Amino acid sequence: MKIEAQDTFAIVIDYQERILAAMHEKEELLRRSEILVAGLHALDVPMILTTQYAKGLGDNVESITRAMGCNQAIDKNTFSVYANEQVRSAIPRDKRYVILCGIEAHICVLQSMIDLQAAGYQTILVTDCVSSRNPSDCAYALERAKQEGALITTSEAILYELLGGSAHPAFKTISTLIK
Length: 179
What we know:
Blueprint: E1 8-13, H1 17-20, H2 26-42, E2 47-52, H3 54-57, H4 62-68, E3 74-76, H5 85-90, E4 97-103, H6 105-118, E5 122-131, H7 135-147, E6 151-153, H8 155-163, H9 171-178
Parallel strand pairs: 1-2, 1-4, 2-3, 4-5, 5-6
């Protein structure tokens, strides 16, 4: 199945400074995630931004909100974004694919993926845009996600798939982001 931008939305999960600081290879995670969300923004893919208990863990990092063109996050105290009513009500009903990125891979991202998959969405986990403190937790989260039916890809692969070709108006923007 080919994933097309008009059928897709994304959930950007908990890129908060206090959580991000503890992530494995956090600089590369942040760099790739900025490319992904800026590319999704250029493709007009709707995105939902979340925080996990912002009162205690702070807001999302500025580079992510700037790349998204949005700084309004839905705060949650559930690990799964789908368990939060405000997130569920923000999900576009006319989309079937959901791109997931964020932290931590084995907690909020994985539980969100499982719930979204059970709700009938085809989930897409972007491997270079998820992380955990411990690399093995992330690796096993990706394995579990595959077993649960998620599609596993990279930021560059999904952005070019959503473009569909070099004639797309956002091609130059995306290719510049990726270089």
